[in-house]
């Protein structure tokens, strides 16, 4: 798709900028905040056999409004488009998880609405996809998402700043960057890292009530670490997956790291692996906590793994609550983050600087 050159600077009112393509016209709405927008003329050529760049519908409706049919990860847009990734942090306390739902507030719907206000692309056009579909109450420090636009931006800092000004304060974009057309937030992920926090204090910390599982028990660290080591490596994790509605295609997963550390009154579990089933991390933590407080032995890990049945795990431990879980990092092949030189640099946001006269200015942080 070829986009005609257009420059808009120092915009302080809501406007729309039209971009004339080879077969159709796209409209981009600039958020009603003062910002500089730069769009450059360029032609993008899709690589042969590329699945993820094939287009965007022409109609721009409110993201998600009136259409809650599930969009599968990897659904293909319908004309050439540019692909971008974002690293997103959010407090999951008030959200019904990541995935869009008809009557509940979700992180996906919140992000789509903010992107719509700036790009005027519908949710089908954006094809917003996350690396992990976090459950209700689960938090994220390093959730990775990708989305598409029918135009290329010369700079990402204005988009970054505008999104964070629109989003509620419990959701923040930490980074925006251009990615190769082959990039897919979920299917390109090599590993994911989660943390789980449990509060072992005798009295619940009111400031941690939504961010750590209150577990006022004396625990045996050695037993928990031994149990964690038994879960490390490649195993059939059927017994740790809540999959009552479907059959697992491949029950084998590789846990590359499982550590247990005590930091003050908190117990920190860190789990890294090539992939995780629904509630797998919380189920593993739940079993380790029961082993730690002595209600069951380390041998329970081997028994549960060997059973390959979720019902066996339920005999030993409940699922740990959602609010102690954090998606920390998603790891990718770095080659997916090196597009052509003409692509804008990664935006890491703005930092405010106060000069000697006490006046504020802004410095851009870019990679």
From TrEMBL:
Its GO biological process annotations read: tRNA pseudouridine synthesis
Q: Show where the Pseudouridine synthase I TruA alpha/beta domain sits.
A: 87-188, 227-333
- Keyword line: Isomerase, tRNA processing
Q: Catalysed reaction per UniProt?
A: uridine(38/39/40) in tRNA = pseudouridine(38/39/40) in tRNA
Known CDD domains for this protein? PseudoU_synth_EcTruA (cd02570)
Enzyme Commission number(s) of this protein: 5.4.99.12
Query: Which Gene3D superfamilies does this one have?
Result: Pseudouridine synthase I, catalytic domain, C-terminal subdomain, Pseudouridine synthase I, catalytic domain, N-terminal subdomain
Q: Name one GO molecular function term.
A: RNA binding
EC class: isomerase
* InterPro entries the UniProt entry points to: PsdUridine_synth_cat_dom_sf, PsdUridine_synth_TruA, PsdUridine_synth_TruA_a/b_dom, PsdUridine_synth_TruA_C, TruA/RsuA/RluB/E/F_N
Any single Pfam family the record assigns to this protein: PseudoU_synth_1
Give the protein family: Belongs to the tRNA pseudouridine synthase TruA family.
Against HAMAP family, the record matches this protein to: TruA
Show the PANTHER family listed in the entry: PSEUDOURIDYLATE SYNTHASE (PTHR11142), TRNA PSEUDOURIDINE SYNTHASE-LIKE 1 (PTHR11142:SF0)
Listed NCBIfam families:
hisT_truA (TIGR00071)
Q: What is this protein called?
A: tRNA pseudouridine synthase
Origin organism of this chain? Marchantia polymorpha (Common liverwort)
Q: What is the lineage of its organism?
A: Eukaryota, Viridiplantae, Streptophyta, Embryophyta, Marchantiophyta
